[in-house]
Amino acid sequence: MDIVSITLVRHGTTEWSAQGRHTSTTDIVLTKDGTREARHMGLLLAHGRYDAVYSSPLRRAHDTAILAGFPDAQLENDLSEWRYGEYEGKTTAEIHQDHPLWTVFRYGSAHGESPRQVIERCDRLLARWKQSGHRHILCFSHGHLLRALATRWIGADVLLAEHLNLDACSLSRLGWEHRERALALWNHLPCMERKA
Fold first, then answer.
1. pLDDT at 191
2. CA 184, 188, 190, 191 torsion: positive or negative?
3. Residue 185: strand, helix, or coil
4. Which residues face 75 on adjacent strands?
5. Residue 194 pLDDT more than 70?
6. I need a surface site. Which of 4, 29, 110, 155 has the fewest CB within 10 A?
7. Residue 108 burial class via C-beta count within 10 angstroms: exposed 0-12, middle 13-18, buried 19 and up
8. Cα 61 to Cα 139: distance, rounded to the nearest angstrom
């Protein structure tokens, strides 16, 4: 029995995400806005049906899960953010000063993870979930990791993720278009609707 849907939630806003700084192993907390976003996300997720709920063990993602109403989310190391190595805490503009063509999906990070390592992590995760027999999965994770996971779900090259924007506290869903795996929903921002 195959997976029917995987609902993806990127964690709420942190100080570093608001500044565009690459955050992997630095275990930063949600801002007040991030806390509010996560609670609002919970109102939307309450209407869903999930056989299993997973979270990155990093605090910003796990706190988002808890605030959204899923305190028992299973911690999953493979949902941790792409490890940025020497680029931890830097903005893309700062990295481009030395490497003008750099993207994490193309080059990875010095002393961090390579695209191949992240692809293997995503493929391993999807294979485990398929084997589990769960049909509707919810997971709380991070921007670059979730973008890579989406490309692997549809069997695409991870470079496609360069073109998939994913904002803080956004909702996405991996599903099907007839018999083909598809991006059923991408980068929906329910918190923005509330502010409008």
1. 63
2. positive
3. strand
4. 55
5. no
6. 155
7. buried
8. 9
Sequence length of the chain is 196
Q: Which residue from 143, 135, 151 is spatially nearest to 183, judged by alpha carbons?
A: 151
Burial 61-98 (b: 16+ CB within 10 A, else e): bbbbbbbbebeebeebebbbbbbbbebbebeeeebeee
Which amino acid is present at 194?
R
The catalytic site residues sit at 11, 81
Longest dimension (CA), the chain: 48
CA angle 167, 170, 176 (to 5 degrees): 115
Q: Which token pair is 131? A: 């084997």
Residue 165 CB-half CA count within 13 A? 5
CB 12 within 8 A of CB 142: no
Q: What is the pLDDT of residues 73-131, one digit of tens each?
A: 999 999 999 999 999 999 999 999 999 999 999 999 989 999 999 999 999 999 999 99
Cα separation, 137 vs 9, whole angstroms: 11
- What is the DSSP secondary-structure string of 36-61? HHHHHHHHHHTT---SEEEE-SSHHH
